[in-house]
C-alpha cells in the first residue's frame, strides 16, 4: 500500500484530502507545518507528499529542497492557493513532481497522485538496480595493494580529475573505472566504454567523434560518436595505448577545449565528459618508441591508478573465489559450492598469468565439473 503525507497548516484541507485519499485505499499521515513534515519524512518513508507552499516555520519549497537533499525519494505534489507561474516554476526547479492550485480538481488530484506513486516506485527500483550493479562491480580484496586502489578510488571519485588506470590484462581495470563512475557525481549519467584495441585504426575517429553523412565510403547517415553519447557522464577509453596517433591528437584537443568535430564536419560541438583511460602497456616506453603522445599522457594521468596482477595479491584469492562461487550459483539458480582448504591453498599457489579473469573462469569450470565440495584433486584436475 502506498504511503502519503499531507503537509498543510489548514486543518480543514488536511482532513478533506485525507478522506479522499483513504477512500482510494492509501495510507495517509498529516503534518501541520513544514518543520513537522520534514521530521516525519526524514524518520519514515513516504511515496508522495502533498505539500502546501505557504506555511509557518518552514514553507513548502524549503521542505521540498531539504527532502531532496536527504535523498528520501518522496515525490512532492505542491498544492497552493497562489497558483502563479513563478511558484510552479520554482517548485519544478527544486524537483517537485507536479503543482496543483487550491481548491484542487478531484480527478486531476487522483491522477497526479497515481502518477507520482508510479514515479516513486521507479525511483526505488532504480536505486535497487544500482545497488545490485554496484555489488557486481565491487572490487574484492583486502591485500595492501588493493586497499591502496580502493583508497584512491574513494578520494578521486567525487572529483572531475582524469584517471589513467594501468595493469595487466584481466586484472580488473574496467572494474576500477566503473567504481569511479558509480561513486562520482556523474553516476546518474551514462558511462560509455570504448575498447580502442578492438576498433580498426581507420574507424576509431568515427567511433569517438562521430561522422557526417557522406564523410567517407559507407557513411550513409550521420553518426553520433562516443564523446557525444557520454555528454554529462564518463567516457572510458580502454586500451588507449593502441589508439592511432591521429586519433590521439583529436582526443587531446577534445580534452583541452571540451569540443569535438565530427569526421567530415566543420561544426564544433561542446561536450562535458569526464575521461577515464586504461592500458596494459607501459605508456612511457610507448612515448619513447614514438607510438604515444607525451602531451596526451600528461593530460590523462592526472591521477594514476595501478591495478596489481593477481600474483601480487594472493591473499585475496580466497575472497575472490568465494565471491565467484556465489555469483555463479546465482546465475545458475543453484546452491553455492565450497572449495576445501587444501584446494584453496593450491589455487593460491598457481601463477595466474590471466589474473582475476582467469580465476573466474577456473572457478566456473570447477562449479560445472565438480560436486558440492570442490577438493584438492578437483582443483589439480581442472585448474
From TrEMBL:
SMART domains linked: AAA (SM00382), REC (SM00448)
Keywords carried by this UniProt record: ATP-binding, Nucleotide-binding, Phosphoprotein
Superkingdom of the source species: Bacteria
GO BP, sorted A to Z: phosphorelay signal transduction system; regulation of DNA-templated transcription
Keyword Phosphoprotein included in the entry's annotation: yes
InterPro entries xref list: AAA+_ATPase, AAA_lid_NorR, CheY-like_superfamily, P-loop_NTPase, Sig_transdc_resp-reg_receiver, Sigma_54_int, Sigma_54_int_dom_ATP-bd_2
Sigma-54 factor interaction domain mapped to chain residues: 139-368
Modified residues (4-aspartylphosphate): 52
An example molecular function term from Gene Ontology annotations: ATP binding
Chain ranges of the Response regulatory domain: 3-117
Protein known as: Putative two component, sigma54 specific, transcriptional regulator, Fis family
Species per Swiss-Prot/TrEMBL record: Fibrisoma limi BUZ 3
Amino acid at each position: 500500500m502506498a504511503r502519503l503525507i499531507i503537509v498543510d497548516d489548514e486543518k480543514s484541507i488536511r482532513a478533506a484530502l485525507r478522506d479522499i485519499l483513504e477512500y482510494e485505499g492509501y495510507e495517509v499521515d498529516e503534518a501541520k507545518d513544514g518543520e513537522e513534515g520534514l521530521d516525519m519524512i526524514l524518520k519514515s518513508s513516504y511515496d508522495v507528499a502533498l505539500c502546501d507552499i505557504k506555511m509557518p516555520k518552514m514553507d513548502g519549497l524549503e521542505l521540498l529542497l531539504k527532502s531532496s537533499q536527504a535523498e528520501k525519494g518522496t515525490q512532492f505534489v505542491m498544492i497552493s492557493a497562489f497558483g502563479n507561474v513563478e511558484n510552479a516554476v520554482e517548485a519544478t526547479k527544486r524537483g517537485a513532481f507536479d503543482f496543483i492550485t487550491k481548491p484542487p480538481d478531484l480527478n486531476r488530484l487522483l491522477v497526479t497522485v497515481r502518477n507520482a506513486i508510479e514515479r516513486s516506485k521507479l525511483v526505488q527500483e532504480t536505486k535497487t538496480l544500482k545497488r545490485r550493479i554496484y555489488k557486481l562491480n565491487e572490487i574484492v580484496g583486502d591485500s595492501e595493494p588493493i586497499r591502496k586502489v580502493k583508497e584512491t578510488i574513494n578520494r578521486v571519485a567525487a572529483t572531475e580529475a582524469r584517471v589513467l588506470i594501468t595493469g595487466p590484462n584481466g586484472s580488473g581495470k574496467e572494474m576500477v573505472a566503473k567504481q569511479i563512475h558509480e561513486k562520482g557525481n556523474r553516476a546518474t549519467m551514462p558511462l560509455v566504454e570504448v575498447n580502442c584495441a578492438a576498433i580498426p585504426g581507420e574507424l576509431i575517429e568515427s567511433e569517438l567523434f562521430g561522422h557526417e553523412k557522406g564523410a567517407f565510403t559507407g557513411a550513409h547517415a550521420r553518426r553520433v560518436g562516443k564523446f557525444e553519447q557520454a555528454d554529462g557522464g564518463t567516457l572510458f577509453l580502454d586500451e588507449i595505448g593502441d589508439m592511432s596517433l591521429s586519433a590521439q591528437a583529436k582526443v587531446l584537443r577534445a580534452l583541452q577545449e571540451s569540443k569535438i568535430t565530427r569526421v567530415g564536419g566543420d561544426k564544433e560541438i561542446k561536450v562535458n565528459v569526464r575521461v577515464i583511460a586504461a592500458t596494459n602497456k607501459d605508456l612511457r616506453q610507448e612515448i619513447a618508441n614514438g607510438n604515444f603522445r607525451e602531451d596526451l599522457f600528461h593530460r590523462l594521468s592526472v591521477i594514476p591508478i595501478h591495478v596489481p596482477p593477481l600474483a601480487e595479491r594472493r591473499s585475496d584469492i580466497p575472497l575472490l573465489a568465494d565471491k565467484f562461487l556465489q555469483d555463479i550459483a546465482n546465475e545458475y539458480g543453484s546452491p553455492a559450492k565450497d572449495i576445501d582448504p587444501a584446494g584453496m591453498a593450491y589455487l593460491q599457489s598457481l601463477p595466474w598469468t590471466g589474473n582475476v579473469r582467469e580465476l573466474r573462469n577456473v572457478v566456473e569450470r570447477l562449479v560445472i565439473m565438480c560436486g558440492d565440495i570442490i577438493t584438492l584433486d578437483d582443483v589439480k584436475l581442472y585448474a
